[in-house]
Structures are given as structure tokens and as C-alpha cells.
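This section describes the prediction task in plain terms. A model, or a person checking by hand, is given the sequence of a single protein chain and must write out its three-dimensional structure as a string of C-alpha cells. No templates, partner chains or ligands are provided. The sample shown here is typical of the held-out split.
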Amino acid sequence: MILGIDVGGTHTDSVLMQNGKILRKSKVMTDKSDLLKSVMLATRSVAEAAEIKQLQRIVLSTTISTNAVAQHQLDPVGLIVMSGPGVSHRDLPLSDKSSYIAGYMNHRGVEAESVDEDEIVALKKHFAATGIEHVGVVGKFSTRSPAHELTVQALLNGQTQHVKHVTVGHQLSGALDFPRRISTAYLNEAIWRLHSGMADQLGAYMQQLGIDVPLYILKADGGTIDVEQSRHYPVQTILSGPAATIMGVLPFISAARDSVSIDVGGTTTDIALFADGAPLLEPKGVQIEEHKTLIRGLLTHSIAVGGDSHVRVINQQLVIGPERRGSAMAFDGPVPTPTDAMIVLGLADIGDKAKALAAMSSLAAELDQTPEQTAQAIMSLACETIAAKVRSMIAEVNRKPVYTIHEMLEGKELAPTEAIIVGGPAPYLAKHVGQLLNMAVVVPENSDVINASGAAMARTTVELTLMADTEEGIMTIAEEGLQTDIPKSFTMADLVAVGKERLEQIARIAGAQESDLEIEVADSQTFNVIRNSATTGKNIRVRLQIKPGLTKHALQ
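The expected answer:
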């Protein structure tokens, strides 16, 4: 059996699953001040003591890190940046939080300028004086050689006990994008303390359950990572909520067509697209708020329309959202919501209908309408807003190459014909949204806990970037900062073979099951090195990944 838990801002959902089926499901209120309490209650709501002892794995998705970024509740971070020549500091992100120091590797990983240790000593004093305990260290070409980042990290760790944790940029991604690497390192440190505290609470949770089974956190790419391993890379757990939705709807997606998933929650609606059954990917990395990162993640867009969105009248026009001020008035909330409109129209038989009618009446009086007319207008506006966002998202995707979690689809034009609609309000909105989009509609069973089931079924994913320079006779594993000598006869096949062996080792450490170790080449390139009109070697680059998808444990 598998336990899936989705810790949301309002509710914590849980499912107990076996053989791909939900045995029990539950929703409990999230206690934001006590994660352990929420997770324990969610567990005991679906699993008895004897069943807890039989669990094979537990997986959580959570909005904790995402909300911290969105609400700017981040720890101060000292950024140490080695940018080298040719880059204006004004053009780099977070320049106001950055200290630029000497030290530069060229594009082939050869030192062009050494690190000045006196600068690190001075920064150590500055961090101590300003109360900075978290530091990110980023060099421009650190994926080609991490030596400078590791030198600075060692100096910080060796010279002060004030710095609690240091992130080095090369370990976060093998991609070259320097500005995105700065933002990624910053966020990793800015939420490190929060995430580590959550991991501590989850350790206490496992002790209270009295079991020793794998415990995972869902990442932005729809894959899982062992909780203890996630302490090193908390930034990977940002946007795990929307990723959980995508993994939850994956069993209902047809490989024979393009599709869209629409997750209508209490505060927001999350939209994702599928090409021939495969979720679309953010090709460069996810963006959260103003931060463009290198974090591999699924392509999702959110709009501030949900079942509990505040509905009001401004200049004789209905406005839905963007804020949520509480539950619907039918559930003793403070302001009218779309949920109240659904109840008045008889679409949902929940809550106190008299209170819902009072909510609609207060708006109707401002519009000179009946409560029923206002309720219908609210539903129409909500559905039209969602449909418009879906259309604009499809149009935006079709202006660029289409990337899925497996590959780039050359010349692909996305044309979804089916919408999978999930979330609590899904049954009440589905028909209207489908008509507006001219798409067939599916509302899966148990769609109200789709995030929890998606987390439960996700497999562990890791990726690795390798580069071979046969002219220099050097192979680099970017994320691990490892370099080794290779012969000039080294080939792409050799590089892939080395990468697969190492990726399997990393995947096992991250918690992957043996049955899920399906490795695929996500990207590969070969360039000739030309000197004096002659080919003197090759630059070979490859990115490997554990194939994203559903764990075979979920189907057993």
C-alpha cells in the first residue's frame, strides 16, 4: 500500500492506495503552525494502525516552499558571484544582494583568474555583522569546472561557524545559464532553513508512526526525492503542488491526442498541457514570482480564480478574485464566493443554502438583478476566465518549440481536444468550460484528492549532465563537480555509458525503486573543435534522466 499526502494552504488531503486504486481518502484542515499535526491527522484519517505497518512508501506534495517565495517570507542570503569579464553586474539578477569577487573559469573550465582569499575573509566579517547565515556561491562557468565554487565554500565552512549553510551553483543544474543559476542558488538558500525544519518534523512523524519505509517529497518535475536528500536541494520542491495534479491526471490522459488539465482549487486554478499524452516541460526552468530558475519543472500556469475567491461588484461589474478571504458564506465565510453561486443554482448540494442566497442577494442588489441571475453571471465569468487562460496558454506554447518531459517535438502544433477537469468545484464547472473550449470533458473519480493520489504514484526522478572534451582529454559530470581524464578516442556512446552507470547510483541514493530505473537520453550534442583548419577533437554533451512517470509500485 502507498500513502499520498498533499499539504495545501487550506486542506491537507490524503489517500491510501493499492494496485493503482484509492482505498480511502480524506480532507483535514491544514494547521500552518504545526505541520506534524496536520500530516499525522491526514494519515490516521485514511489508514488504521495495522495498515500503517504495511505501507511500502509515503509521498508528500506541499505548498510550503512555494508559499514562502510567493509571500516573500525568505531568509536573507549572501550571494557570492564570480562573473568574470564581459558581464555587467546590472544585467544579473539579485545584484543588490550580491558580492562580486575575483575568480574566473573560462568556457572550457580552465582557470583564467584565481580566487582572492582575502575577499572571502572580508565577506565572512560582513556576513557576521549583518546576520547573514545562508550563502550562495556561483561562478559563471562552474559547470565546466567547480573548483572556484568549492574553494569559496571550503573557506566559508572552515573560517566561520556563523554561516549555517552554503549552496554552490554547479550542484543545482548542469545547464549553462548563469543568471538563472544565480537565482536558483539564492532561492535554495532562502528556503533552506524552512525546508530543513519541515524535514525534521517529517522525521518526527515517521518516529510516531513507528515504521521504517521510504518517505519522499514531490518535486517540480513531477518526480520524487527522498526527504533526507531533499535537504540539499529544497528549491526542487517549489511548485510541487501543480506537479502533483499533473501526475494525478496522467492515468486519464490519452497518448492518442493532445489534452489540457484544469485543477480548480479554493484560491487558484492551475492549467497544464499534454502533447500526445506527455506533460509539457518548462525548457529553461521554472519561474516563480520574479525569479527565473534552472529548476526542471512541468509547464503550468495559474490564475487567481477558485471556489473560494472573493466576488464583489466594482463599477457595476462583477469581479472574481484575486484574493481568497476565507470559506464561502455558505460555510460561515466573510464574503460571497463562486461556491455560494453554485449552491444557489443547485449545482452543489453543500453548505447552508440560505447563507449562500444571502451572499448572492447582497451582490444582486448592486446589479439590479435577482440572486439567481447574479449567481449565473458569476459562474459564467469564472468559466470564461478559465477558458480564456487555456486558449492564451495554448497560443503561447505554439509560438515556440514544444518541449515535453521526454523530448522536444519538432514542428509540433498543440491542439487539445480533451479537458481533464479536477478539484472540488470540477463537477459543477466542467460542462460549461468544455463547451467554451469545444473540448470533450472528463471529471475523474476522486478528483477532489487528485494531488494526493498524484504524489502517491510519482516515481523518483534525477538527471545528470556530462561533457567530454576529447582535445583536452577531460570528462566532466557537471552536477557532481567531478572531472576525470579520457582518451582522445572517447565517443558519445562512451559518455552515455558512463552517465547511465552513475545516474543509476544517484537515483538509488535519491530513493528510486529498482523497477523504476528507466534511463533516457534527454539531450545530446557533439561539436568539432577546429584549430588551424583541422579537427583536433570533439566537445560531446549529454543529459540523461530517469524517465518521469508513475512508479510501478503504484500499480502493484
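For orientation: The mean pLDDT is 92.
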